[in-house]
């Protein structure tokens, strides 16, 4: 069984699905271990079987597989190196709307999951029932008879769904996605009739405040140049048909003439380089693992930096003779 990944949603989803499919085989292996003469191994196997056949565990597993099936396309989309912030925002909104719809129809959605959980639990030799400690005593002193489906829906499915929805909304909030305000430069936005002059001017001022120091000009000159280019940029795309508008940031940057729109071209390149997730950083970590393996775990920072530069700048030819001469001149000649 693969380990549960704490950071990569794709691998986490695959792990849940594989674990659910292999659960009967896992139970069978644990039952064979229970027959061993080694007391500790048999006791641990029995404890694991009790945990794996617990109704709460089975229901939680079914809920996680269902929710991750909705978030998996978004995770796959966020893994793309060429994904821009605008496309990420659209996909995030679709996932949030889908999860909100599941929340509003929690009774119907969980009803199907509960039936699947009940069938799986029966195959494993368990029984779907409410944990004894949750029974509430009424005024007569007799424990209440709470429906298992109602209990697990309120205790497991709805809290998990609410937690994931809130986490996605917090990570991809409107303030976060619109923090840079550069989306106003996109043709589908700047040519939209719904974009009022006041909204355009407000976003332009926000762009000037954030990015004027990246260009070799003063803030006032940058603002005047950007406003002049933006007027021409808007007229350019208003004349174009909606089917001819670029679909993403990269295509917009290629369609932008750097000679006529130097400021907008630079801002579009900045927008295209903004990461919409941590996948780029995770890729760098994966590359680092190829350099700093377990056998090289004690290497110094200088050597690690040198190996990283060699890996990045492969087009630069290294003169091996110069490397050997420098190595021979050093006090330590360990190979």
Automatic annotation (TrEMBL):
Under which name does UniProt file this protein? Answer: HAT C-terminal dimerisation domain-containing protein
Offer one Pfam family short name for this entry: Dimer_Tnp_hAT
Q: From which organism does this entry originate? A: Megalurothrips usitatus (bean blossom thrips)
Which GO-annotated molecular functions does the record name?
Answer: protein dimerization activity
The HAT C-terminal dimerisation domain covers which part of the protein? 259-315
In terms of superkingdom, the source organism counts as Eukaryota
């Amino acid at each position: 069984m693969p380990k549960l990944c704490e950071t990569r949603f794709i691998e986490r989803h695959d792990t849940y699905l594989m674990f659910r499919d292999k659960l009967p085989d896992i139970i069978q292996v644990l039952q064979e271990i229970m027959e061993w003469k080694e007391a500790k191994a048999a006791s641990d196997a029995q404890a694991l079987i009790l945990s794996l056949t617990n109704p709460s565990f089975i229901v939680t597993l079914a809920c996680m597989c269902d929710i991750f099936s909705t978030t998996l396309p978004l995770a796959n989309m966020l893994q793309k190196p060429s994904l821009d912030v605008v496309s990420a925002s659209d996909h995030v909104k679709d996932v949030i709307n889908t999860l909100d719809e599941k929340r509003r129809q929690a009774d119907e959605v969980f009803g199907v999951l509960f039936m699947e959980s009940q069938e799986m639990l029966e195959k494993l030799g368990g029984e779907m029932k409410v944990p004894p400690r949750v029974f509430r005593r009424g005024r007569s002193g007799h424990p209440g008879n709470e429906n298992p489906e109602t209990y697990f829906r309120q205790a497991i499915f709805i809290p998990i769904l609410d937690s994931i929805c809130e986490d996605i909304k917090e990570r991809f909030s409107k303030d976060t996605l619109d923090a840079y305000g550069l989306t106003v430069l996109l043709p589908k936005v700047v040519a939209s009739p719904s974009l009022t002059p006041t909204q355009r001017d407000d976003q332009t001022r926000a762009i000037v405040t954030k990015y004027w120091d990246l260009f070799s000009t003063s803030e006032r000159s940058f603002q005047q140049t950007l406003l002049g280019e933006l007027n021409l940029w808007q007229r350019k795309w208003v004349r174009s048909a909606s089917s001819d508008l670029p679909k993403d940031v990269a295509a917009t940057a290629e369609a932008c003439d750097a000679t006529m729109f130097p400021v907008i071209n630079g801002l579009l390149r900045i927008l295209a380089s903004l990461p919409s997730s941590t996948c780029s950083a995770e890729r760098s970590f994966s590359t680092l693992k190829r350099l700093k393996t377990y056998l090289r775990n004690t290497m110094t920072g200088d050597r690690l930096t040198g190996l990283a530069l060699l890996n990045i700048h492969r087009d630069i030819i290294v003169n091996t003779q110069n490397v050997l001469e420098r190595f021979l001149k050093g006090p330590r000649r360990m190979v």
